[in-house]
């Protein structure tokens, strides 16, 4: 029996930001790979900053060429941080990505994630629009994971979000402990499904946590650059969304914004169903 092939797709979370080991990034997927079974071959295609379009247009073809037995697709947060956010497009891309693996009988791993506004501790008027977007992405991921038979991890809520020991200094990415928790939770799901046969990843870090000085240095260098890139693209629109949030709150009509977002998600998923049911043209 040949060793399993595991390919990871996605963004900085899967690339391993927050879990540096020996001058490189490791991350939850690499930790999980060690527990899948003897000789598992692992390739990490995730790239920091990737959106659903990047996974569909770049990472997917490379992943399929490797003929994996298991593939993880954890992506979507970066889509919510762009002014071009479109839940219809996100849903269509994820459906195509998930479907490509299902057609090849690949075990697909997916996850829903916390919203960045809450994790960053933004003021309510700024955080709520981002939370609404992330809820939309999570709803789509939930629905499509069920549709395509994925092994799905609910990681968008729970005590782990407020345990600072699990998160890196940027508040957006897990630290080593957090990556280990992510890997452990996936390992439990895969063990229950009879897919993972190796030992579970260790829960405790194998390396000392970064010092406060190292964390401040990250914020002053890479962290500042990250914020600057997002502000250039997102901030003008986010301020507009925040102003609308304040107006609706003052009028007591905030529920309309939630309802509008829910309708958009329902329409996006319905469009995929209609497309699947459309007869092929000879």
From TrEMBL:
Taxonomically, the superkingdom here is Bacteria
Q: Which residues form the SGNH hydrolase-type esterase domain?
A: 8-180
One Gene Ontology molecular-function label: hydrolase activity
User: Does the UniProt entry include the keyword Ribonucleoprotein?
Assistant: no
Query: InterPro entries this protein is in?
Result: GDSL_Rv0518-like (IPR053140), SGNH_hydro (IPR013830), SGNH_hydro_sf (IPR036514)
What is this protein identified as? Lipase/acylhydrolase
Report whether Repressor shows up as a keyword of the record: no
Q: Which UniProt keywords apply?
A: Hydrolase
């Amino acid at each position: 029996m040949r060793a399993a092939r595991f390919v990871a797709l996605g963004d900085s979370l899967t690339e391993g930001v927050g879990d540096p080991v020996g001058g490189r990034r490791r991350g939850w997927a690499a930790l999980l790979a060690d527990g899948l079974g003897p000789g598992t071959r692992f390739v990490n295609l995730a790239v920091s900053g990737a959106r659903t379009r990047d996974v569909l247009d770049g990472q997917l073809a490379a992943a399929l060429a490797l003929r994996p037995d298991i593939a993880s697709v954890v992506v979507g947060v970066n889509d919510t941080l762009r002014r071009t956010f479109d839940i219809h497009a996100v849903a269509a891309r994820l459906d195509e990505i998930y479907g490509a693996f299902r057609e090849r009988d690949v075990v697909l791993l997916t996850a829903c994630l916390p919203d960045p506004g809450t994790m960053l501790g933004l003021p309510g008027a700024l955080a709520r629009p981002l939370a609404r977007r992330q809820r939309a992405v999570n709803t789509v991921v939930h629905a499509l994971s069920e549709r395509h038979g994925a092994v799905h991890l609910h990681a968008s809520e729970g005590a782990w979000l407020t345990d600072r020991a699990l998160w890196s200094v940027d508040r957006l990415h897990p630290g080593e402990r957090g990556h280990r928790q992510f890997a452990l939770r996936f390992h439990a799901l895969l063990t229950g499904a009879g897919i993972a046969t190796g030992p579970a990843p260790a829960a405790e870090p194998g390396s000392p946590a970064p010092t406060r000085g190292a964390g401040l240095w990250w914020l002053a260098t890479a962290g500042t650059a990250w914020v600057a890139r997002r502000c250039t693209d997102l901030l003008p629109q986010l301020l507009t969304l925040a102003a609308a949030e304040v107006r609706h709150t003052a009028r007591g009509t905030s529920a309309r914004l939630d309802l509008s977002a829910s309708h958009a998600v329902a329409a996006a998923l319905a469009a995929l169903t209609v497309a699947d049911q459309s007869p092929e043209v000879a």
